[in-house]
Amino acid sequence: MSRSVRVVWDDALTSYDFGPGHPLAPIRVELTVALARQFGVLDTVEVIGCAPADEDELALVHGRDYIDAVRRVSATGGPDLRVGLGTPDNPAFVGVHEASALVAGATLAAAQAVWTGEAEHAANVAGGLHHAMPRQASGFCVYNDPAIAIAWLLEQGAQRIAYVDVDVHHGDGVQTAFFDDPRVLTISLHESPHTLFPGTGFPSETGAEGTAVNVALPAGCGDSEWLRAFHAVVPPLLREFAPEVLVTQHGCDSHALDPLAHLMLSVDGQRMAYEALHRLAHETAGGRWVVVGGGGYELVRVVPRAWTHLLAEVAGKPIEPSTPTPRAWCELVTRRTGEVPPLNMTDGRRPEFRDFADGYDPADPVDRAIVATRKAVFPSHGLDPLM
User: Fold this and answer.
1) What residue stretches are annotated with the Histone deacetylase domain (predicted)?
2) Which domains does the chain have, with CATH numbers?
3) What is the CA angle 297-301-305, rounded to 5?
């Protein structure tokens, strides 16, 4: 399906590290890249390095006063609570600017490869820091790499960019960056803001011309319900919007084992979402697809498997779910974490879902969430919310 693929990786990306005990542990991307290498996924793509985003690139989204503040924190490791650094979510550390700018630079490298035609698809699994605000660190995020990449694409002349965020948390920082810009369609599927950080992402947050789209799903939602909601909202909007580039954020903290949230997806359900977004990239965006990681806090059993499936899908070489995890990788997991590794690439699920076109149940909380979103934004796109 895919003609050319780049994966952006540099071992220095693991320097984005808030310290021992913090949920966003860099071991998750280390183990992901190791697993993808063991499966040969990275042998089928071009792996490229990256440079840190410079100040002008960061300033496409972030205030220069904020960037200066992050630099000062970076030099000393001292907190600056005015910009959200030095909190439990966002501890201050020496080198925070350099580490954050490198993550942003990696996502920029992916966007640049796709925009110039050097690659059809490009991925940075260390990215996806979607909570960072223009002048505030938030939710483990210092610089908002997907928003910076989108802003760069707009600066190059792109007129329609679609961003789909499947992280369990609302993609609030990206929505904020483009809330009043009808050139950017942001779609976020997340756990209800009534039960989860950041407390935003209601269907009523619709932005310019209905281009901010929020699907707020109830706690306990599993594969079938989540996939039903995804297919009821995302494909029709992407087909109507017809983006020049599709940017997708793949936080895998929607998994049932994730310790910070309350959705109940499996790796198998997440893999089906990756397949669907790959198809939609080709159908609606001419194959131009920029992929980033995101949240995910079950560091051994979930993140490496989910994102290895993601990279394999991006590469056009999907991994059969029943495939055993390689022995060498299992030994690495035990050596690095002391935990028992997963033995194969599946949770043993075969998710199925009912199509929304077959009718909806007003007593079902997931169907109510779907209808709320469709009623809020579909008319702005010339779509019937109930059909």
Assistant:
1) 22-313
2) 5-48+99-381 (3.40.800.20)
3) 95
